[in-house]
Amino acid sequence: MAHIFTFEWLHIRKSGAFWGTATVLPLLIGFSLFLGSERINQQKETIAGIIAEENAFYDNMRTQLEAIERGDAEVEAWFQNPANPLVLGQFNQAGRHIFLQPKPLAPLAAGQLDILPYYGKVTLTGMEPLRDNALENPFMQVSGSFDFAFVLVWLVPLFIIVIGYNVISSEREKGTYSLLQSQPVSIRSILVQKMIFRFLLVFGIIILSLLVWSVLFGIDLFNIQGLQLIAAISLYAAFWFALCVLFNLFQTTSAVNAVGLAGLWVFFLLIIPSVISLVVTSLHPVPSRALWITEKRTIQQAVQAEGDAIFDMWVVDHPEEFVEGDTPQFYNTWIRRFVWAQATEEREREAERQFEEPRERQAQLASRLRALSPPMTLQAWLERKAGTDTERLRNLENEMRSFQQEWQEFFLPRFQRLEFFTSDELADIPAPNL
Amino acid sequence: MIEINDLTKSFGSTVAVKDLKLNVAKGEIYCLLGANGAGKTTTINLLLNLVQPENGTAKIGGLNAADEPLKTKEKLTYIPENLALYPSLSGVENLRFFCGLSGIKLSDSDAVSYLMEAGLQEEAAHKRVGGYSKGMRQKVGIALAIARSSEVLLLDEPTSGLDPAASSDFATLLTNMKERGSAVLMATHDLFRAKETGTKIGIMNKGSLVEELDAADVTHSDLEKIYLNHMRA
Q1: Residue B206 zone, left/alpha/beta (φ > 0; ψ -120 to 50; rest)
Q2: Among residues 9-68 of chain B, which lie with CB inside 8 Å of chain A?
Q3: Most buried by CB count within 10 Å: which residue of A66, A245, A301, A424?
Q4: Is the ipTM, as predicted for this complex, more than 0.85?
């Protein structure tokens, strides 16, 4: 094998295809990792900035409350009172942000971050998923989601095809095939050895570029996930080289091989995903987004129309959670708003099922069908490892919902009983587990 | 060294080789004459196991090519009509590569000396084969046979397209190989070269060996007459 490797190197080092690959591929990998690391740095800065802002707000509330308790300051209006549960849980900057922290491999795949938010704000009346990545990160506006996953899944196969499409067919075209056939080594063995060498060359270029650029951009790949990534890259490159071997085994010309392999590239990367999309949307159609927005408006209007009845019913059901008599105006206003918000959310969640269930079935079917295309499987795997997959990002909503419940359980009973906070109690305000 | 017995091969309804019997001993140059399509190249391809016979055997050094193709290839060097080498590599690199496939590791200086023995100049040996003439490429083929100490040399019209001087040089190299004890089977259209270089001459027509002569026993003009008689028959 060493003999073939030595002479394959003598050959390939004089080939433009090799030097093109050895130059362009590292640059593409470097550019994608640069964009990825910029995106994640921006994300980390956003998270750190928001956390600092939140902490500053609650620190300020505590300071003000301590001053009031000492008699050094006075409360001029209810909405300025830092002891008021409404001020601490709902107004102004009150509330907590829930974040999906970037995973170590996050710079490698933007995944669904273009579409789905990675953080959102929880207050007493609701959740606000925030999706302003493109505004926060100007690089995304320039480049879209040009990431390492794109380079690996979409572009690397093209480089492999360029390097491997004519390993044996060119021997036939140059006329060296007949001399090779007369040697005491089988052509298949020569082909496989040549392909292994070219595989190692391309694989080496990818891994070396990946590691060097990662170190430069501060992406940690020297861990188990980095090893898994290298293993996945080797399998993916081997898949495309195996296709090149297959084509070279047939007595076809280099032109036929090139067109055939390009056709497979189109098939695996464009046709299969389109067919999967067609199949899942046909089998499990999801009602349109416009319909969902209309449905939400209808629910909100219904709750508004039934407002008094809903509140009266709640009072009857929860007498212990309602202070009767001479209560402040803000209490009477906001107790109703909370009841209506809860009613709206319950109805919306019920209605959402008809949209979510087919979407879930779509996702499950698509996930199974994705196995038909190794590139799609790798893309999904990379997004999972990077933590930018649909499932994780959609799970943000569940985490927000769960935290909102905790937030409401902490503040609402105090508000409903009109119990104000002391400065010592502010330390108990719930914070999400980041 | 080369033993062909009752060898038959057809391509569809066309019989390419029919009941061929032929032997080439050590130190013998057997020239196979015949028109295009007479079955000369198919005979060589059967010896190389590039096609499988329907009947009969083609043996090299006692080994049946169809049963043990790789072992038989260890014993032979094949030079096709248009010997193509890797154009981006030098003569030395080409020789080292093809020798390496037989498990023979050559140093650069070894390769140069084999190439010079085959008639190539040292300066040319280090140049890219892309700039070689056909005669120079054939010399690399002969150097390969020398370096591998091939017992058998299979040549498919090696002198076609060579100028007379290059053809004569090539004939000298074949004679040298014969003297080293190699058995040479050369398919050719060149009656003159067959008579001058060969020890035995076989004439093939429509897949059959129709005449076998000792080159020493026949004159150039007789050979031409015999050949033409068979072709016109």
Answers
A1: left
A2: 48, 50
A3: A245
A4: yes
The distance of A252 to chain B (nearest Cα, Å) reads 17
At residue A318, φ and ψ (nearest 5 deg) are -125, 60
Quote the pLDDT of residue B153.
87
State residue B120 phi and psi, 5-degree precision. Answer: -95, 140
Low-confidence ranges of chain B (pLDDT < 50): none
Say if residues A192 and A164 touch (Cβ distance below 8 Å).
no
In angstroms, the first-to-last Cα distance of chain A is 52
Q: What is residue A141's predicted lDDT score, i.e. its pLDDT?
A: 54
Instruction: Map out the domains of chain B as residue ranges.
Output: 2-75+151-232, 88-150
Q: How far is A6 from chain B (nearest CA, A)?
A: 9
Q: Hey, are the CB atoms on B98 and A183 less than 8 Å from each other?
A: yes
pLDDT the model gives residue A330: 86
Chain A / chain B CB contacts < 8 angstroms: 57
Domain residue ranges of chain A, discontinuous segments joined by +:
1-268+390-434
Q: What is the DSSP letter of B128?
A: B
Of B89, B96, B102, nearest to A183 by CB-CB distance is B102
pLDDT number for residue A84: 92
Q: Given an 8 Å threshold on Cβ–Cβ distance, is A174 in contact with B70?
A: no
Report the C-alpha gap between A132 and A120 in whole angstroms.
Answer: 11
A-chain residue closest to B102, CA distance: A184
Do the chains contact at B76 and A182, CB–CB below 8 Å? yes
Q: Are A102 and A128 in contact (CB under 8 A)?
A: no
pLDDT reported for residue B28: 92
DSSP state for residue B8 in the 8-state scheme:
E
CATH superfamily of B2-75+151-232: P-loop containing nucleotide triphosphate hydrolases (3.40.50.300)
Place of tokens 């300066």: B123
- Chain B closest-CA separation from residue A208 CA (Å): 28
Q: How many C-beta atoms lie closer than 10 Å to residue A330's C-beta?
A: 15
Question: What pLDDT does residue A434 have?
Answer: 64
Per residue in B85-134, pLDDT (tens digit) is 999 899 999 999 999 998 889 999 999 999 998 888 889 999 999 999 88
**Residue A350 host element (H or E):** helix A329-369
Across the interface, do B73 and A183 touch by the CB < 8 Å criterion?
yes
Low-confidence ranges of chain A (pLDDT < 70): 129-144, 434
